[in-house]
Specification:
248 residues, alpha+beta, Glycoprotein, Type 4 Pilin, Jelly Rolls, 2 domains, four-stranded antiparallel sheet
Length: 248
């Protein structure tokens, strides 16, 4: 049956047209969302770079990198010098604790670069899960094992045959752990991770801790998932003293 000229669209034609618009809209939304996430990654990387420069300014002023408050850069907002800092502090260096483009504070922790014996080294789950051994030398005596956990939920850390961190101690989002250890002349650090393949820990071992030795740091963003680890736009953006991380 022919439709008269000037007649309106049929219901079927209208439904087809609506479906086409919905499909085009979905593709457009996905594209806009992807562009938005890419922009946020660029903004986060740029901001981290700026905070790295600012941390160096603080160290130049006060002779030490600022303390990590709640594992964030909150101390940069202090007007008065934090405990242990004397002359040279010129705060506040920032008006507010830095927040990344996904609404989560940038994470920040100190490491001990002067006196560092091992690491910090990224340790992932092996396939199949098994102990991975790392060897290093040290002056015999006391030291500290430092762990930053990025969403590993099951892992065992052994130093020279002694379990330092057991699997039962691992909890999601527990980021920073420091434990005293006994160092030998030749040391074997063994790690066995049994968690998501994309999850990992940063492990380091230091010599006896002195406040002045706190000259290293880890600063970064958790990405779009707002938690440690992740892939794609959810990858952690990490800067370790003097170098950008592998996903930076």
């Amino acid at each position: 049956m022919r439709r008269d000229r000037g007649a309106g669209f049929t219901l079927l034609e209208l439904l087809i047209g609506i479906c086409i618009l919905v499909i085009l809209g979905a593709f457009g939304f996905a594209l806009i969302s992807q562009v938005s996430q890419r922009t946020k990654v660029v903004v986060a990387k740029t901001s981290i770079t700026q905070y790295v420069m600012l941390l160096d300014v603080v160290k130049s002023d006060a002779n030490y990198y600022p303390p990590a408050i709640n594992e964030t850069l909150e101390s940069l907002t202090y007007t008065a010098a934090p405990t242990g800092y004397g002359k040279g502090w010129r705060g506040p260096y920032l008006k507010a604790t830095p927040i990344d483009p996904w609404g989560t504070p940038y994470f920040y922790n100190l490491i001990y670069e002067n006196g560092i014996i091992f690491g910090p080294t990224q340790c992932f789950r092996s396939t199949p899960p098994k102990y991975q051994d790392f060897s290093f030398t040290a002056t015999p005596g006391t030291g500290t094992l430092i762990m930053d956990n990025f969403e590993l939920t099951a892992c065992s850390v052994i130093l020279n045959g002694i379990e330092i961190i057991s699997e039962s101690e691992f909890k999601v989002y527990d980021l920073h752990v420091e434990k005293p250890v006994t160092l030998l002349a030749n040391n074997i650090l063994s790690v066995r991770a049994r968690s998501n393949k994309k999850s990992y820990i940063l492990l380091g071992v230091t010599a006896p801790l002195i406040f002045g030795n706190r000259t290293g740091y880890i600063v970064g963003s958790y990405g779009s998932d707002k938690t440690g680890c992740g892939a794609g736009f959810a990858k952690d953006l990490i800067w370790i003293t003097g170098q950008a991380g592998t996903d930076f």
